[in-house]
Amino acid sequence: MSTTAGYLARRAGQKERVRLLYRRALKDTLNWAVHRHLFYQDASELRDKFEANRNVENLDVIDRLIEDAEAQQRNFQHPDPYIVVLLRC
């Protein structure tokens, strides 16, 4: 029973890491895009990269893929990201 619970907990953690990684990568893609049509193309390519590994079942392989993707995302971060400032009137 604890093995199943451990598996499910690890799997849930991996799903959360992937979700956050995808969001960060998508926001960074928007920072690099000069025009919206370029962003759509880059976002589609990014989604394809994530979808390519969707059916991987080995937990150790998934962890390695996540770590590699996080390292790649850190290297890809924009040095001057776009920051939305909300002004109150």
Write a brief caption for the model.
The chain is mostly helical. It has helices spanning 2-32, 36-52, 59-76.
What's the layout of helices and strands?
Layout: H1 2-32, H2 36-52, H3 59-76
Helix pairs in contact: 1-2, 1-3
Features:
3 helices, mainly alpha, 89 residues, single chain, mitochondrion
Describe this structure in words.
With 89 residues, the chain is an all-alpha fold. The chain has one domain. Helices cover 74% and strands 0% of the residues. The chain contains three helices and no strands. The longest helix has 31 residues. The relative contact order is 0.14.
Cα-atom radius of gyration: 16 Å
User: Helicity, in percent?
Assistant: over 70%
Query: In percent terms, what proportion of residues is strand?
Result: under 5%
Give the tally of structural domains.
Answer: 1
- Inertia-based shape: elongated
Number of discrete helical segments: 3
Average pLDDT, all residues: 92
For the terminal residues, how far apart are their CA atoms? 57 Å
Residue windows where pLDDT falls under 50 for at least 5 positions: none
- The total count of strands amounts to 0
Task: Give the biggest beta sheet.
Answer: none
Structural class: mainly alpha
Order of SSEs: HHH
